[in-house]
Amino acid sequence: MKKISILTLLFNLLIISSLFSQNIETPSEFLGYELGSRFTRHHKVVEYFKYVSKSSNNATLEKYGETNEFRPLYVSYISSEENLKNIENIRLANLNRTGIVSNSSNSDVVITWLSYNVHGNEASSTEAAMLTIYKLITEKQDWLKNTLVILDPCINPDGRDRYANWYNQTKSSPYNSNRATTEHSEPWPSGRANHYLFDLNRDWAWATQIETQQRLKVYNKWMPQIHVDFHEQGINNPYYFAPAAKPFHTIITEFQRDFQVQIGQNHAKHFDEKGWQYFTKESFDLLYPSYGDTYPTYMGAIGMTYEQAGSGQAGLGVITNNNNELTLWDRLIHHTTTGLSTVEMASKNSKKLVSEFEKYFDDSNLKDKSYVLRGDKNKLKKLTSLLNTHEIKYHYANGKTVKAFDYDANRSINLKTSNADIVVPSNQPKGKMVKVLFEKETALEIPFTYDITAWSLPFAYGLQGFSSVQEIGASENSNDKNFIKNSVPKSPYAFVATWNSVKDAAFLGDLLEEGLNVRFSEVDFSIEGKSYKKGTLVIVKGENKETADFSEVVIEIANRQQKTITAVNTGFVTSGADFGSSSVALITNKKIAVLSGEGTSSLGFGEIWHFFENQLKYPLHIINTRNFNRTNFSEFDVLILPNRYNAGKSQLKTISEFASKGGTVIAIGSSVGSFADQDGFALKKKKADEKEDEEVDLTPFDERENVYIKESITGSIFKSIIDNTHPLAYGYPNHYYTLKQGSTAFELLKKGVNVGYFSKEANHISGYAGEKALKKIPNSLLFGVENKGRGKIVYMVDNPLFRSFWENGKLFFVNAVFLN
């Protein structure tokens, strides 16, 4: 019998492996059309990934969730056959490095996560995802020996299909590359955002959307060493890849910065070979924590954004400014190249990546050891819900006194803690993310950033915040397991419910939907030994005779909403106004309209839509702007104008008539500007200093950007004064921390009520605000109410629903709808 040499055996194994690889169909073969010749609908993408997972020993597929429009969300795990058999050991060994779990698992496999199509109309990346998985398992198996690739082919299927369906319906055949044609002009709201028109690339930290919430469960299970977010930008831009632009957050390590450079150099090598243009170190910084590059970075990864020219304007092909055609194939092959280059670098540097990743989780150099949160229990519960989503540890304080920095007083104090205070320690696996989310002010290397520059959670959630260099121990009595269960009283005269948070508003909404008469007190009062503030809800049994089992119905709603309510046996108060007084006003079941469509911000509208459907769970009537002149607004009680709506003269006339007849108009963000300096309205835009305007600008051209930034406010926190005697501010103290997203300012109302405004000092708390922009803020309006006939116009200069993460602003909005 002939002996087979080892070389012959290896050669035969390579042939068998090659034949097996050739048996896996390319994306083009599977789909039945050339990749890049059309946009693939999401269900076909899923079918291809299912096919690959069944056909290859190098890939498995996991469904991790579902979108609002019932499209499935998947991740694919791609590695060597041996690694996939050992995948749980790889996962546990990786978590052991972070300190999240403690186990004896051992593995040096590096984990690289590739995320595609977070913006639905940046659609080339999902096409690239199919080609990338094919090339990994057929051509790049050597890299998979020490690398596990987690690939999410489409983070935003609802937005992608919105774009793909529109384009497939609209395009010429063959496609037309003239950018002036219809197929290059995507209609409102575009495919960028998800079902509720939220930008999922700004939701990683706030986790307001179902896609994010489900993805984070998987992310927390793996904690990769590298994470890439694939995007598209304007059609005339060269490809962008790492290293990122400044500013970098101070917690980002030297290794994280340096490895971005190494990856960029590797990409450049591949792009240079093809003659493709690219740029680095510009535009896309690493600061705001809710991006698909920064969030992973603050979780220890090398987080990166890759940007290909294209987006919704490009279609299958478009002529750019250099008179070249940019095709879908160009776009997807560029993304495929950087994706493969990333995996290549992960494989070549696996040991270094793993060891530096482990070092990242040493939090001993963090100065502040504890962050203390104090305030309304519903607001605290909302915050702990967010912490649970990110698997960030917290506990209740032990009652000891510590030295702490008081965010509100802006000074150090001796803080006596209590077991109602929440403590978030930085000495935990995700301690650096804790610092990012809770520090009062983030250090800025330079003022130029791609997004907001302030987000400190104590301010965002309306809580008192403190930081301490001391570790604060846990209380033996945990408040975390409190479950509210009101009991049904025998025969109450009325129920009384406090008014402090959005949960109270959801309770009110359910009462109104049930058909109950609900009132709110316009004065402070005390009854049966307890004191209550303005805004307190009063539900009197005697004016709800039509509701059978009145007490049982109210209690059931309260328990469902986890809302504590109090039964009282009389309407005769000790102080304040009796329940039959005109100062205890009836809240009617409001019929609420909101404008949507062309001329409004899709994101601004989405914030309102999501708030009503997911938090208030209260009916909302959506009116498209194209139907504005055909709509009988007298059918409604409230009309909401989303951010960026610019009303013309005829619309302003209709809006004015609606308010005069008893309606409430709520103008949010830049839509407030529609009313400024217009006849018949009290609002006036605050003008700049005329002397400064007259000065000739002799700034050198290359320094003009520094001049512009002085006039900007890039998402900064300001402290405002609040008149909490007005219904718009019920439930608030006499101050409020607002997130100001721009420098536009308005004069205080001379005819109307200035409910929220900025003092002479302006009280800038954190984030970037240019020196010229800061001059506009003192004595300017934040929230105002202008009476108009029998109705009113509510001006909300700063958007209280911004990205649904500025929790403390939401009650202002609810007050404007129901109590104002």
In short:
The protein is α/β, with parallel strands linked by helices and 820 residues long.
> What best-fitting shape do the alpha-carbon axes yield?
globular
Reported CATH architecture of the largest domain: 3-Layer(aba) Sandwich
User: How many β strands by DSSP?
Assistant: 35
Give the overall average pLDDT. 94
The fourth-level CATH homologous superfamily of the largest domain is Zn peptidases
Classified by CATH, the class of the largest domain is Alpha Beta
- Beta-strand proportion: 15-25%
Domain unit count? 4
How far is it from the N-terminal to the C-terminal residue, by CA? 96 Å
Task: Report low-confidence residues grouped into runs of 5 or more.
Answer: 7-11, 13-22
Biggest sheet features: 10 strands, mixed
Helix amount, in percent?
A: 25-40%
Radius of gyration over all CA atoms, rounded: 29 Å
* Number of helices, counting only DSSP H or I runs of 4 residues or more: 23
Going by helix content, strand content and strand pairing, the class is: alpha/beta
CATH topology of the largest domain: Aminopeptidase
Description:
With 820 residues, the protein is α/β, with parallel strands linked by helices. It has four domains: 6-360, 3-Layer(aba) Sandwich (Aminopeptidase), CATH 3.40.630.10; 370-468, no CATH class; 494-587, no CATH class; 592-818, Class I glutamine amidotransferase (GATase) domain (Rossmann fold, 3-Layer(aba) Sandwich). The strands form eight sheets. Strands 26, 27, 28, 29, 30, 31, 32, 33, 34 and 35 form a ten-stranded mixed beta sheet that branches. The protein is globular, with a radius of gyration of 29 Å.
